[in-house]
Each structure stands twice: as structure tokens, then as C-alpha cells.
Amino acid sequence: MIRFENVHKSYGKHEVLKGIDAEVDKGQVACLIGASGSGKSTLLRCVNGLEDYQSGRILIDNEKVDAHAPSIHKIRTRVAMVFQRFNLFPHMTALENVMEGPVQVLAEPKAEVRARAEDHLRRVGLADKMDFYPSALSGGQQQRVAIARALAMRPEAILLDEPTSALDPEMVGEVLSVLRDLAEDHMTMLIVTHEIQFAREVASNVFFLDKGQIEEHGTAEEVLARPQNARTQEFLRRVTHPF
Amino acid sequence: MSPLSERIQEYLPLLVTGLWQTVAVTLLSLVLASALGLVWSIMRSSGNRWLELPARYIVEFLRGIPILVVLFYIYFVMPEIGLDLTAFQAGVVGLALTYSCYIGETFRGGIEAVDRGQVEAAKSIGMKHGKMMRRIVLPQAFRIALPPYGNNMVMLLKDSSQVSVISVAELTMQGKMLASSTFDNMTVFTMVAALYLCLTIPLNILMRRVELKMGASK
Ligand SMILES: Nc1ncnc2c1ncn2[C@@H]1O[C@H](COP(=O)(O)OP(=O)(O)OP(=O)(O)O)[C@@H](O)[C@H]1O
Ligand SMILES: [Mg+2]
């Protein structure tokens, strides 16, 4: 479904992605882990064209992602994105945020979208917050609205960039449980996360990114419980036992 | 000389007609300047250099010319190339052109102050540039730009007195004529100042209200 073939990306002279090869199949939940600055966000952002890349290919079901081609708009409707800092539209209510894409971009009938958007908001546990503006919602609630906004596009896959790391600890659980729920429904997801425990539970694949290269990949069990690579071992030691 | 109260009553009708002219000049040029300013700001943040560069040069060019010279130019030079405007029209156009730059910069500041994450969120649901500007960026940019826009409004109102140089019969012009025929400078210009304050003070209060409300809703 999402395929990386020898993807290289630089900012000026600074090479951030150094030949990424990876694949996420339909229905899989892939977790991307790695130290700060290793290129995780960059890799994710290349998938829906928020960044361009210099060589190699990223394919969504055999369609090449090119940030500068007109086709990028269509691709973005197929691959949704959830941001670390939620990025809800502050001048719209939760419900309007969720309806915006389907109504304005996909030009779907408003009544139908509204019903579906309400379903999505109920699903993420926000039945009673639909008419609230983002500023009146907690971080965890905002992130759940953002997930509902992604779902409303009926995407083939969702990209999530550290969806819980801007949250207060007591709100992490509510967002992870929504993601668990999606994983059980076999929503294809590529998740950048530092929540190792969560990754072990839901991930079908884990990729460990280090200095712009995938150092290790495999099942969650393989990479997280029995890592072979010394760098992976070191990284996991640091995130699970920070002191 | 007759008593002060009588003189005030005598001058007031004339000055009030000037006041209305001032309001008319200000409102018309405000609408035009805002529309043009919006055009400049959208061009400058379009990401397309064939739109960006012309807008930048136009703004730079207009900002480099004193407003009086712009007014003289429109009123005295344009007729020579066949564009005959009344003093009122020339005044409105001159003010609007000059202020479109300030207002355009205000709007551009608002657009640039909108969080990058908003643009990315809009893109990530597949929005194209135009729709993103209309639905996501501009509504937020306007809220950010509102306080400085209010300042532009007050400045424009005061600068509308400049059109008296091409003899538009607005408040300052009426005052000048009245003063030179009565020699009662003190009374006339005090009244003129007071009448301007009747416009600017409520406008300032309104602005502060809006600002407070905006601050509270954030
Ligand atoms: N717009 C940019 N311009 C220049 N360099 C950038 C830009 N964005 C990221 N980088 C650099 O690219 C590298 C990878 O950044 P990236 O944000 O992808 O890392 P990350 O793995 O997501 O880190 P974190 O865990 O802190 O989010 C970093 O060295 C960063 O400084
Ligand atoms: Mg990151």
C-alpha cells in the first residue's frame, strides 16, 4: 500500500533520509521509532507531499508521490495525516473540522457527511463535544477530533506523527485506545511513536530509523523484544529506562 | 464680535457638511483600499513569483511617494492623459492607492502569522491553494490583522484631511475657508479638531473593544 524505494532527501547539503526502503501493506499498523532528528517526521511528511524528496520513489498503490505534481491533492485525500500538535482549525467547531474535508474537498453532500462525521466523533468518544471549538477542548480531545477528521476522509491509510507526545500524561491513554480500536479494524497506519509498549501491542511491523537509515525492521516482537542491532538495543534501553 | 455660542452656531452647519464629506471620503477610500490591499496581500503570499513580484513592486513604489504628491498627480496630471476626475474622486483614489499599501502589509502580516500547522492541516486533507486561503488562512489572518487594521482606519480618517489640498470640501477645507473669511482661527480650528475627535475617539474605543474580545476568545 505504501512503498518506499531507495528514498533520499536532503535539506540543502544535510542529507536527512539516506536511501529508505520499506513497505506497509494494506491493513498493517507500522510503527516508526528512532531518536530525535533521525528523520521520522521527514519520512512521514514525504508520504503525503508536505516535503519533497530528491531521489528514489514513494508509491501509494503504485502511484508515485510527487509533492510538485497536481496529483498530490488526490493522493492526500487517500492518505490522511494526524499531527503532533493536532492542528485543528480554530475557527470551526469539532464537527465542522471533521466535515471540512469531505464537504469542501471531496464535494460530498453535506447532510450525509454530517451524519458520518457525528458517527466518527461518537466513535472517538466525543458525542457531547461536537459543537465545541478547539480552544474549549483538552489536548486529548483535540487529538481525537483530529483523528475523526482524518477518518472522515475515508482514507486508505493514516499517517500519525507522534500523536501523543504533545499530550499531558493523563490524556495519552484515551488517544492510544482510539488508535488501538482503529488497529483492530485493520486501518492501515504508519505511526511515529515513542510509546514502545503501545507499539508492542498494536504494531504489525516496526521500523527503527537511525540517522536517516532503517537500521532494523521486523515484527513488533522481533524489533522491540529481541532487537539484533546494537543501535536499536541502545535506543530501546534509553527510551524504556531513561534514568 | 458676537458671543462665542452664537459664533459656534453660525459655523457649525458648514463644518458639519465638511464632516460628512470627510466621512464619505474615508469610507469610500477605506473600502477601495481594503479591497486592493487584500489583492496585494494575496498576490504576495501566493507562492507564485509572477504574482508576488508585481505586487511587491507596486507596493514599494506607492509607499515611496508622499500622499500629497499622489493626490496632485491624480488630480493635475491624469487629466493630461485623458483621465478627468473630480476633486472628490481624485481624493478617494489617491487615499485608496496610498492606504492599499499599508492595509496590504497589515493583511500580509496577518496571513504570515497564521500557524504553519494550519496550512499543513489544510493541505493534508487535499485542499488546493485557493480554497485553503479562503476557508482556512484568511479567516484566521483577518482576526490577527484586525487590531492593526483598526489603526489603519484611524490613520486613514485623519489623513483624509490631506485631500483638502486639491480642494475637496471636507472638514479641514471647510475649516480653512471659514477661518480665512472670519479670522476667528481659534474657534474654527478648535471646532474642527473637536469634530475629528467625535469620529476618532469612538473608533478607538470600538477598536479596543474588538481587541479585548479577540484576546478573550483565544
Ligand atoms: N525544514 C527543515 N530545514 C532544514 N532541516 C530540517 C528541516 N526539517 C527537519 N530538518 C532536519 O532534518 C533532520 C530530521 O528531522 P525530523 O524532524 O525528520 O526528525 P525526527 O526523527 O522527526 O525527530 P523528532 O523525534 O525530534 O521529531 C533533523 O536533523 C532536522 O534538523
Ligand atoms: Mg518528528
Task: Walk me through the structure.
The complex is a heterodimer of chains A (243) and B (218). Chain A has 243 residues and is an alpha/beta fold. Chain A has a single domain (2-88, 155-240), classed as P-loop containing nucleotide triphosphate hydrolases (Rossmann fold, 3-Layer(aba) Sandwich), CATH 3.40.50.300. Chain A is 40% helix and 25% strand. Chain A has a 6-stranded mixed β-sheet with strand order 6-7-8-3-9-10, sandwiched between helices. A 4-stranded antiparallel β-sheet of chain A has the order 2-1-4-5, with helices on one face. In chain A, strand 1 and strand 2 (14-24) form a beta hairpin. In chain A, helix 3 packs parallel to helix 5 (139-152), helix 4 packs across helix 5 (139-152) and helix 5 (139-152) runs parallel beside helix 6. The longest helix of chain A has 16 residues, at 169-184. The termini of chain A are far apart. The model of chain A has no long low-confidence stretch (mean pLDDT 95). With 218 residues, chain B is mainly α. Chain B has a single domain (4-217), classed as MetI-like (MetI-like fold, Orthogonal Bundle), CATH 1.10.3720.10. Chain B has helices at 4-44, 49-63, 67-77, 87-113, 116-124, 129-159, 171-182, 185-217. Chain B is flat and about 75 Å long. Chain B starts with a helix and ends with a helix. Chains A and B meet through helix 2 and helix 3 of A and helix 5 and helix 6 of B. The complex binds adenosine-5'-triphosphate and magnesium ion.
Please render the helix and strand layout as text.
The complex is a heterodimer of chains A (243) and B (218).
Chain A: E1 2-11, E2 14-24, E3 29-34, H1 40-47, E4 55-60, E5 63-64, H2 71-78, E6 79-82, H3 94-105, H4 110-123, H5 139-152, E7 157-161, H6 169-184, E8 188-192, H7 196-202, E9 205-210, E10 213-218, H8 220-225, H9 230-240
Parallel strand pairs in A: 3-8, 3-9, 6-7, 7-8
Antiparallel strand pairs in A: 1-2, 1-4, 4-5, 9-10
Chain B: H1 4-44, H2 49-63, H3 67-77, H4 87-113, H5 116-124, H6 129-159, H7 171-182, H8 185-217
Helix pairs in contact in B: 1-2, 1-4, 1-6, 1-7, 1-8, 2-4, 3-4, 4-6, 5-6, 6-8, 7-8
The structure holds adenosine-5'-triphosphate (ATP) and magnesium ion (MG).
Magnesium ion (MG) binds at residues 40-41, 161-162 of chain A.
